[in-house]
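I hope you will forgive my troubling you with a question about protein structure. I set the record out below, with my sincere thanks for your time.
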Amino acid sequence: MRPIKLELLNIGPYAGSHSLDFGRLGEFFLVCGPTGAGKTTLFEAMTWALYGELPGTRQTSDIVSHFCADAEDAGAAFEFAVGAAARQAGYGPGCWRVERKPARMVAKKRGSGMTEKPAEATLYRWEENLLGPGSWVPETERIVEAEERIRGLLGLSREEFSKIVLLPQGQFQRFLEMGSTERAAILEKLFPVDIHGRIAELARRRKLDAEAELSALDGKGAELAARFGE
């Protein structure tokens, strides 16, 4: 997966509207700043936008900025590319956008008191247009369907994504303390090692075929030696 853009609206310490265009940062970039500057919030917002949950034990309601008034909206949008699109610049097939808003208690538009505003999530896919620029086309507005689709696109559960993304955020020791099986499972999802497994299996099968052929030839050789020896 390659991140394209992250948009925040009253999320964490980011009061108001903010946008982070990863495409302008180049192939490699460093997220840095003093403690409390909001570095972790960027990773948390991406995780929440994709999976609807925050890493660890924090509640979803914790992601809304404390500076957000009851009448104001809050949410995040995350654009990302998967597959071949992740190796290319710009938008194209394989690019996706997820928009998410948390469930909140907000002030009623009419009268006094508060009312509950339900959570929302919409998944979009990028669609090319031969007659003009491409655009985002809604894939689903159902929260469960959007999350299932995203898990399929990324090939990672929320727990796996959190462990991988948050390793630089003081969680590397946790990764080191995992069992070898769990670490291997995470690394196999992170790196394309499946081709090496297929090559190893093909080599094993060819070895067995060669050994069987050699055994058959040895048998024929012994049979011919016995026949001419007579």
About this structure: The CA atoms of residues 188 and 194 lie 8 Å apart. The radius of gyration is 26 Å.
